[in-house]
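Notes continue from the previous slide.

Worked example: a multi-chain complex. Inputs as given:
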Amino acid sequence: MLWQQDLPGADLVIRGARVLDPVEGIDARLEVRIDDGEIVEIAERVDTNEHRVVEADGLVLAPAFVDPHVHLRTPGREDEETVASGTAAAAAGGYCAILAMPNTDPVVDSAATLGALVESARREAAVPTGFLAAITRGQRGEELTEMGELADIGAVAFSDDGVPVASAGLMRRALQYASTTDRPLALHCEEPTLSHGGHVHEGRVAAELGFAGYPSVAESVAVERDLSLAGYEGGRVHVLHLSAAESVGALRRAREAGVAASGEATPHHLVLTDDAVRSLDPNVKMNPPLRAEQDRLALLDAVRDGTIEAVATDHAPHAAHEKEVPFEAAPFGVTGLETAFAVLYTHLVKPGLLPLETLLERMSAGPARIFGLDRPRVATGARANLVLLDLDRDWTVGEQPFRSRSGNSWLLGSTLNGTVQLTVAGGGVVHE
Amino acid sequence: MIRLVTDDLRPPTDPPRRHLLSVADLTRDDVERLLGTARTFAASLDRHVKKLPTLKGHLIVNLFYESSTRTSSSFELAAKRLSADTLNVKSTGSSVDKGESLKDTALTLGAYDPDIIVIRHPQIGAPQLVAAVTDAHVVNAGDGKHQHPTQALLDLYTLREELGALEGLHVAIVGDVLHSRVARSLLQALALVGVRATLVGPPALLPRELPAEATSDIDAIRDADVVYVLRMQNERMEPGANYVPSLREYTARWGITPERLRPGQKVMHPGPMNRGVEIDPSVADSPDSLIVKQVRSGLVVRMAVLYDVLTGGPVGVQALAAAEVA
């Protein structure tokens, strides 16, 4: 279900690193040998076999990251991102797999469009890339897509991300039909009659600045609705970009009740609150909006306890001129692939709010499990999908040009701790 | 290239540019200074020749993206009374009609080296964007539902001229607070000078979590020294918007009528009024109405603001750094 350009399999020995794979239960100073893209030996001392040796004293070697929520803007807005540029950004961010959302122009709702994307990924994807297809044709919320054929071609899941499936009846039909494809539905939960026209979380900041409010209940009533339907139909659902404490509560209760439901949170919702909007910077405008501190803390708790199994960037590139406008005129969305690990390490792990092991799991094994992808792991016989991290090195966002074609990062100018020194994805070295 | 000697006499770095973007950027001292300056200018308007040479040789651009009578006319007249050159640009009939972005329009006007750009725009933060991409001092003449700082200052000026000391006064602000930049600026300005404010209106038109007393009970206005009536915008009343069931019901429950006022209670309105909707005509025309006085205050306060951003003490530039990043 993932495609990548042909790359030579790496022949490498990584020496001196702290090898950390929370799922395999490894946390030790070990050497790792990779032959032709496959991990063949993990030991205190491995034979270099005349391979190139990467000296990694003081670094952390972990399973590379999986991002289940990326906008590659292709087809239609190749000026903002392409398969090549988006996957290069992913490689630089330490990712070995990404899933692209279907809200392109045209929407990925047909075999032809999906097939063309698969071909692009085979030609230009630096890291293994998968695609979601739409739930409804044109994401118009009226008719289901031909999910069977789309799954056969390789759609990983179905989503109308960017817009909600407004009709409860159609959502029910989607759950019923998607169950025949063994693919989850990835849900953008928003009740449009409540979010209508809103730009900013409905709270004190919106009230003071005069922004039309996008209340938490606009998300949580949709989450409640879809989880109820999923429970009733027995379907598998994944709730995208959770932002509100009430939504997190709904997800927790549904999971305890046995609903096959998962959820994700973005770095910006885990680090920022709507207070950031006081800057009027269009690079803190996203959907769902940044919410209150209590919401942020609820998300963080859920990431910690596993209610939220995945951290997803919702990497949403936008052309510079489209963000150089007043806040209300700017499109929703921020980039994130190149900064996700560093910002979460800096703001959550370093201050002791989230264990490093948990972050690594939620950025890799968690999303892989949700979407049925092979879990990146440090294990002999596994394809090499590894990231080498320098947790002691600082960098300033934007000093080096982004690999992404777009620079709408909310972190421009921020200094972060933690760099990606090396990414091996699908057995090949894709970033160094 | 010939270098003029005067170039070398300039200070090595320009002092930080000063703007008036939001009441939130002002201190109480700023407000006192501005009101004091306005009073000085008011005295000059009683003379036979009303023009002052103060800003001779300065260029002031009035860039208006929304229709406006009193704000645009008073900014233009304020500039002319201070002898500045003025350039009025309206969005209709300009390149904006051809789809030019605000950034490009600002860069174009900025190329004429204006000293001040006065901007009104339907979107929040437009003045910050203009400040970020030009070298002009920027004065916010209203941005979306966000801020209208000169309106708040002229309201304070009017209150002080008519009622004396501001501290301890109580103002009831009645109507559509949710969509009102006037209410947002005024609330901050009143807090700055120690005036108590109570918001009164239908629940859907009172923003949640605004840090102020709020009630839907119209009888609450009786405790106030001043009733500040907000404009009820027709577009909010379209069928299906459902903020209130009808204009008729709004007027019946929240309209300001003589019966709802105490004798001597002052009434203000930022204009333009919908007579017979939010305010009864007999209230608007009564001796206790300060509405025409507000307009006159608008002229002297805007003279003071134009003078102050070019010459006075520090005015904050909050949010500017972020806008520059954008």
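Summary box: The longest strand of chain B covers residues 137-143. Residues 193 and 206 of chain B are 23 Å apart (CA to CA).
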